[in-house]
């Protein structure tokens, strides 16, 4: 087959012209809008990827913030528990001290009452001893004592 024969050259030129016209028409009416749609789709895809990346970064930031708040809350709760324990221990010590003071006061009052009763008993015994002594002396020596 001879590519440069006289009959094939006009056919080739016509094919070339038809190809160029077809290419021009396709590029103007088909490829242009098609490439435009593809570029728009690529731009939307990039925008969605950027948006997803921003959302991921925001999610990481919020997660870190949540962890910090949670850790702070745990620390605050621990501090509150420790403070409550210290306050409870202080109150318990105060109650114990007040109970001891009250007990000491009751013991002192009881000792004072016992001492008073002891003195009264001793005075009563002394009085009775003196009376008994006088009676004994009067019975033994009735005429000598007046």
Shape: rod-shaped
Strand proportion: under 5%
Per DSSP E runs of 2 or more residues, the count of β-strands stands at 0
Distance between the termini: 187 Å
- Count of individual helical segments: 1
Q: Low-confidence spans: pLDDT under 50, at least 5 residues?
A: none
Mean pLDDT: 89
N-to-C series of helices and strands: H
As a whole number of angstroms, the C-alpha radius of gyration is 60 Å
Helix content: over 70%
The major β-sheet equals:
none
Structural class: mainly alpha
What characteristics describe this protein?
146 residues, mainly alpha
Gist?
The chain contains 1 helix and no strands. The chain is mostly helical and 146 residues long.
Describe the structure.
Helix content is 91%, strand content 0%. It has 1 helix and no strands. The protein has one helix at residues 8-140.
């Amino acid at each position: 087959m001879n590519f440069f024969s006289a009959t094939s050259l006009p056919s080739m030129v016509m094919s070339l012209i038809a190809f160029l016209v077809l290419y021009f028409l396709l590029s103007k009416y088909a490829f242009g809008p098609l490439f435009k749609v593809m570029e728009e789709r690529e731009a939307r895809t990039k925008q969605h990827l950027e948006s997803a990346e921003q959302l991921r970064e925001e999610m990481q930031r919020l997660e870190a913030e949540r962890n910090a708040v949670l850790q702070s809350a745990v620390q605050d709760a621990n501090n509150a528990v420790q403070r409550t324990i210290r306050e409870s221990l202080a109150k318990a010590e105060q109650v114990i001290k007040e109970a001891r003071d009250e007990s000491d006061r009751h013991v002192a009052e009881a000792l004072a009452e016992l001492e008073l009763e002891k003195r009264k008993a001793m005075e009563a015994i002394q009085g009775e001893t003196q009376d008994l002594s006088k009676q004994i002396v009067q019975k033994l020596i009735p005429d000598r004592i007046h």
